[in-house]
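Section: Multi-chain targets

For targets with more than one molecule, the full set of components is provided together so that the structure can be written out for the assembly as a whole rather than chain by chain. Components appear in the order listed by the source. The example entry contains two components.
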Amino acid sequence: MKRGKLLLRIGVFAILMLLVSALLYLWIIEMDISIDLGFVQHNKTSHSTLLLQEGREMLALATTEYRRKSVFPYDFIPEDTDFRPLFAALFRQEKLAPEEERLVAIYRLCARMGIDLSEENDRFVLISARLRAGFPLEEALRLRLWDNDPKRIGITLSDAAILDIEIVDDQFDDYPYPDIEANPEEWKEIAFFVQQELRTIARKEGLLIEAEKRGKAALKKLFQGLGYERIEFRTKSENVEALD
Amino acid sequence: MKRLLLGIALVIGFSSCARSQVDIDNLEGRLHSILQMPLYEMIYRDVIYIGEEASFLGFKHIDTKLLFSIQIRIEAGLRMDEGIKLQRNSDGSVRVQLPQPEILLLDADESSIQQYFLKERGKEIKRLDYYQEIAKGKKRIREEALQSGIIETSQQRARRVIEQILRPAVQEEIYIDFIKAETGADL
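Its structure, encoded as tokens over all components, is:
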């Protein structure tokens, strides 16, 4: 009887020790600690090689920045969207409206990422982005002067454009939400989709109008400093806009 | 024995409680006034390898390997949010005071990603795993670009560009100086 109890105690102790070492091992993996004890191994390696590909001159005048945080995919899908009629229409080979095509594209993108939009889902990624808009000056920035009117100047500019879109690179320290399981190829697809969407949203919210307005105001101030009083802007469409 | 069980329960309890509270704020877009003149950019290619292996009692349960490349762009130019100081002298010459060029952008270009191979056995690679490596690369690129003279190149280009822009409107001499910006921390 006593021997039986002893064996039971040893057995329970052995199981507990195994459990503790398993927990300790899981903790080692969670904390990214490299360890090699023969029966327990954990190694994490990373290498990186940098190559300078090119250096190039550029010229632009960035006048407006648009910052936005978006929750992918939910910010890009209207509430109460039902995907079933869309796929039924696709099955019947009916032509979809551009907005419907956009929704089908996001559904398919999410499906590739393992996010099933037809059911409850808790996978998301918060994406911070910055868009810079202004005038690309490489193509056009020409000045015109009038001999009979020395206080007048004409400035030809290209149309205001979105110069670049930066997806802010998150780090462990500044991203408090659950991370998304997306390999680089998948992340490239998400980033491309979000950049396209943000281009449209920013345009709708008046980014280019604002960029043009602020750019012209800055140039006006600059040439006023040189003593010009009548400053006219000419864009690609050749419409003269007198600001004064 | 009871103490040991209590200890294990506490460890499990703590690990399940370590969950951060989600507070998503300020998601709407915002327009900000800036005045920047990007002048010179350098494009680097970062080839990144990440691997993880784990085995317990001879059983390999994690084996992940990832090799990919990404382009990282560093851009320098003028941050002119305070405006440019322009002064026309009595002899008709113009003095332009520009801020010192600085790094305006350091960004990993997601559209340039090329994934060479991916092995995910026992664990999926998450986005922040490789962004940690990208961040290290960005830090090195910043140092390398500064050492290779990205600021000096931008300064020379700023002189040329400003003179080109103003030349049709100014027949006399154009003097260009660079002043240290009082505000606007470098990136």
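Chain A has five helices and nine strands.
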